[in-house]
Amino acid sequence: MSRFPDYFNIWHKTGVYALRLSAGSVLFFLMLPILVIIPLSFNSQPYFTFTEGMLSFDASAYSLRWYNAILENPNWILAIRNSFIIGFFATIVATTLGTVAAVGLASPDMPFKRVITALLLSPMIVPLIIIAAGMFFFYTRFNLVGTFPGLIIAHAALGVPFVIVTVTATLSGFDRSLYNAGLSLGANPLRVFKDVVLPLIRPGVISGGLFAFVTSFDEVVLVLFLAGPDQRTIPRQMFSGLREQINPTILAVATLLVFVSICLLVSLELLRRRSERLRGV
Amino acid sequence: MTATTVQDSSLLPAGRALTREEAWFARRELNRRRLTAFMLVTPLLLFIGFAFFAPIATMLHRSVYSPTVAQLIPDTLAELQSWDGQGLPDRAVLTTMAVDLKRLASERTSGKLGEALNRGLPGTSSAVKSTARKLRRVEDTELGANGAALLLEANDRWATPELWRTVRATGQIYTERYFLTALDLERDAEGAVQVREAAQIYVQLYSKTMRIALIITILTLLLGYPLAYVLANSPSRIANLLMVMVLLPFWTSLLVRTTSWIALLQTNGVINSVLMGVGVTSEPLEMLFTEFATIIAMTHILLPFMVLPLYSVMKGIDPSYMRAALSLGSRPIPAFFRVYFPMTLPGLSAGALLVFIISVGYYITPALVGGTDGQMISNIIAFHMQQSNNWELAAALGSLLLALIIALYWIYDRLVGAGNIKLG
User: What single DSSP character describes residue A8?
Assistant: First the structure.
């Protein structure tokens, strides 16, 4: 777009610049909230806003006190631990069941494919408040409310659609004759899956797992309805912090979470490249 | 699938048809493969059935199932069956009610009955509770002989047929009452459905939710379209860098983004400081805890859902179409609307539907930044679940929302295909 064709007149060029300018401002709008909270989290004052000292780059206006506050608060430590425990097990459940199901869904012989796919993806579409209310009614009967297994099951159900989408996408480039070749060489289907299919779709499985983990890690509505005080997670702790006593500890946690997302984005990109290489695209 | 398709297979020598036995084997093999594929999906279907569909079904059931009153005063309700709904019920019914109320008072559940009846007829709660308190001290024999008079004496509301109609109506285990409430309707004394005379809130709330969702959809479209265009038409090195700026917010925790909007929008927050510093305004603007805050924060959160499908469609559009139109002398704007825009419609409809579906059911952001006028239907459902404990009404409101979402999801599946959701 940098060099304009000869038939472009001044209006064409103005249009292109206007377009770039508007795209630039939208990107600014997208990034602004993330860019704002990072410096605010180093505020030495208990405010949610830039102090004069911060604006004049006075070193004493910046501090790590809110990061220390996280470490000193047992509620945050518990929340961080819980988030990882619930996220880990929910990911294992969603990824295992989701990958196996995706292999079935990708088969050309799968009956009722369209309906079943739509059903399995529906947890992604149904509003969380409806899921939360329903789970609260239903899980109470099995004494799952206020327990770790209850939250793990709930979060796994939310993560499944993401695993299905990513693994099916990887499988669409999978050459089924490799599977048949494995079978004709005498391996049983399980062995073919383990030694032939899985290594090839592994990038898709891992990125599906990452999606499932993030879904659980970021989820708060189900936690609000299903978790007891012992199962508070990071988002739950942030939610009550924002409603009750706002202080920059939340901003420090938020900044740490932004770095988690950056790591995640990088790993997803690396996985995507690896997957493309494996599929020979 | 029949044997004819197998017959066409190049594996068979030309001209030879399958024998019956071979066709049978082929069919059996096909069925076996179908079964294998289905077996692979079965564990997940069972899991999702338990973890997701059963809860949804329970919620739908709960919206018409209301056992509270029926469990608390079964005897009174049984006797009320023969009442014609006019005047007061028999003294025997009143006596049974008095006995039931004494039992509830000693079990400390009269409050539950009062709360349940109060939903049908506001103001009943205190009458029930005070009566129960008074009857608690009365001896059983006295109550059996003189219960009706004691009941009427304890509170004069027991003399109104309206209250007894409410008792009978709320005593039904299966009821459409909560759906009527959710639609701002009610039954009059004769049982005909009419628009509720008291506060009409829910229909208005649904239309407000739809309006906010529509505004957000339009905003994400206006902001997302030019951005997606520039992303799709930049050299890949620049495009990748810009894409990171779309994906990073997308992958950043929802709570983080909502937190930062609070920091930006609050009275002494970043935006107000800038506006006052520049001199646009001398008084800080009240932006946080308004509908405006809900709209802007949700537009920010949902923008990537619009940009990503638009981008992937625009990426596939050959730039030579536009060049051809321009070089043939068309002005850019007509060329855009007649050539380029129609080709982006698949991505546009996918993005718009997805944003609309997600925003209609949004809970967290309105709850945190919306204040009172930025609340949406989800927030009222949460309110009835957690604060007012009117679970049946929450379920009915949720069922209506679910019906709306399913209709939209069905359209989405027709237009886009549910499996084509883009995850960046």
Answer: -
Cβ–Cβ under 8 Å, residues B259 and A37: yes
The string of DSSP letters for B137-198 reads TS-HHHHHHHHHHHHHHH-GGGG-HHHHHHHHHHT-SB-SHHHHHHTTEEE-TTS-EEE-SS
Q: Over pLDDT 70: what percentage of chain A?
A: 97
Nearest to B294 by CA among B382, B372, B224, B223: B372
pTM recorded for the entire structure = 0.88
Q: Looking at the domain assignment, is residue A71 inside a domain?
A: no
**CA-CA distance, B309 to B299, in Å (whole number)?**
16
Domain range for A97: 82-232
Which residues of chain A fall below pLDDT 50? 1
Q: Which residues pair with B222 in a beta bridge?
A: none
Which stretches within chain A are classed as H helix?
10-40, 52-55, 65-72, 74-106, 113-121, 128-141, 148-171, 176-184, 189-192, 198-218, 221-226, 234-243, 249-278
- Give me the pLDDT at residue B420, please: 63
Does residue A224 lie within any of the structural domains?
yes
Is A164 contained in some domain?
A: yes
**How many CB atoms neighbour CB B241 within 10 A?**
10
pLDDT reported for residue B1: 39
pLDDT of residue B332: 79
> What CATH number is attached to the domain comprising A158?
1.10.3720.10
Among A163, A86, A55, A98, residue whose Cα is nearest residue B277: A55
B-chain CB neighbours of A10 within 8 Å are: none
Distance, in angstroms, between A31 CA and closest chain B CA?
7
Does any CB of chain B come closer than 8 Å to the CB of residue A197?
Answer: no
Domain assignment of residue A161, yes or no: yes
Q: Which of A223, A262, A250 is nearest to B261 (CA)?
A: A250
Q: Is the pLDDT of residue B15 over 80?
A: no
In this predicted complex, what is the ipTM? 0.90
pLDDT tens column, A249-273: 899 999 999 998 899 889 888 888 8
Indicate which of B42, B220, B247, B253 best probes the interface with A, i.e. most A CBs within 10 Å of its own CB. B253
Backbone angles phi, psi at B187, to 5 degrees: -100, 135
Q: How many Å apart are CA B14 and CA B7, to the nearest integer?
A: 9
Verify whether the Cβ–Cβ distance B41 to A110 is below 8 Å.
yes
B90-116: pLDDT as tens digits: 888 888 898 888 888 888 888 888 888
Pairing of strands B185-187, B193-195: antiparallel
- Cβ atoms of B241 and B387 closer than 8 Å: no
Count of structural domains within chain A: 1
Q: List the domains of chain B with CATH numbers.
A: 3-62 (no CATH), 68-175 (no CATH), 202-420 (1.10.3720.10)
Q: What is the C-alpha separation between A265 and B208, in angstroms, rounded?
A: 36
pLDDT at B7: 45
Cβ atoms < 10 Å from Cβ of B357? 23
Structure tokens belonging to residue B229 = 């265009």
Angle between helices A113-121 and B20-48 (to 10 degrees): 10
User: Do residues B402 and B390 make contact, with C-beta atoms less than 8 angstroms apart?
Assistant: no
CB B369 within 8 A of CB B262: yes
Residue A194 is given by DSSP the state I
Q: How far is B48 from chain A (nearest CA, A)?
A: 6
Q: What integer pLDDT is reported at residue B10 of this predicted model?
A: 52
At residue B4 the predicted structure's pLDDT band, cuts being 50, 70 and 90, is very low
SS3 at position B65: strand
Contact (CB<8Å) B248/A168:
no
Which of A23, A98, A101 is nearest residue B227 as measured by Cβ atoms?
A23
